[in-house]
Amino acid sequence: MAKSMRSGLAILVAVASLASCAAANEFGSDASFKAEAPMESTAVAESANILTAQGAAQDAVEAEADISSPVEPPNDTGVTAGQPQLIKRAQLSLVVDSIDAGLKNASQIIRAQQGDILDLQDDQIEAIHRTAYLRIRVPQANLDPLLEALGELGTIQQQGLSAEDVSTQIVDAQARLRNLRKSEESLLKIMERSGEISHVLEVSRELSRVREQIEQIDARVQNLQTQVRYSTVDLTLAAAVASQPIGRPLGETIGATWQEATQSVGDLTVGLMQIGLWLLAYSPYLLVVAIAGVLGYRTLRRRPSA
């Protein structure tokens, strides 16, 4: 607006100078007026030039101020003022007719909701009770549709949802980052100045420490923001009907039976040998007991009957 006013003022001054020149030519019979008209025109032109120069100088000052004024950085952190930043975790346990079919259908649902499988464990060691466990990462906006679609795969046994608000942590970390970046800029300016080597080394060490803190806090902020954008789901699938044990081949069954039989005979032989060793160790005591028994029996037989 100031530029427009200065331009208008310059135009008015130019128009006034032209009008003065026209008036001087019209009244050309007066010699003194003719002498004063060029002087007045020259003064007006000089005034216009001064105003134009002042306006250009002021424009330059304003342009320099616009360049040097700090520009507010864009808010690209994904944190909206007043909106809580929640880390959501869900748990879901289902009983399905078939583990294989349940895993296949769950994978299709996860892909449809733009999710990823972070962990998959299929417990087939216990054939009687087979279970499968999946850890899923999905965009937070697709969490509810994902849980609803997975719940239709079987009977829900357990379902849970937890949320943690990390808004304060993110805001505090971002404030620390701004302060540390200002400190980094100040240290860089100090580094550009010439000085003693000891001072330069000290500033360099401080700059390295500040940059390390910036990297640590920045990594923490990015980790929190990733956890906010993506939710975690722990899915457990259990078979409704116990799986039948897988039969072994005939040769393997006969070999296992023979091995069990020979092992049983060996165990019996070792047991009998152990009993014989125990009897041999206690044979003196057994001999004394036997002799005492025989003598007692004979004494009873020799007694006359009443």
Q: Tell me the series of helices and strands, N- to C-terminal.
A: HHEHEEHEHHEHH
How many angstroms separate the termini? 152 Å
**Structural class by SSE content:** alpha+beta
| Major sheet summary line | 5 strands, mixed
| Helix count, DSSP H or I runs of 4 or more residues | 8
The beta-strand count equals: 5
Strand order of the largest sheet: 2-3-5-1-4
Please report which band the strand proportion falls in: under 5%, 5-15%, 15-25%, 25-35%, 35-45% or over 45%. 15-25%
Mean pLDDT value: 74
Count of distinct structural domains:
2
Q: Which spans have pLDDT < 50 for at least 5 consecutive residues?
A: 1-80
Shape category: elongated
**CA-atom Rg in angstroms:** 50 Å
Q: State the helicity in percent bands.
A: 55-70%
Transmembrane segments: 275-297
Signal peptide: 1-24
Domain DUF4349: 85-295
Coiled coil: 163-227
Can you describe what's shown?
It is built from eight helices and five strands, in the order ααβαββαβααβαα. The protein is α+β, with helices and mostly antiparallel strands and 306 residues long. It has two domains: 2-68; 85-245, no CATH class.
What can be said about this structure in brief?
Residues 62-81 are annotated as: Disordered. The protein is α+β, with helices and mostly antiparallel strands and 306 residues long. Helix content is 64%, strand content 16%.
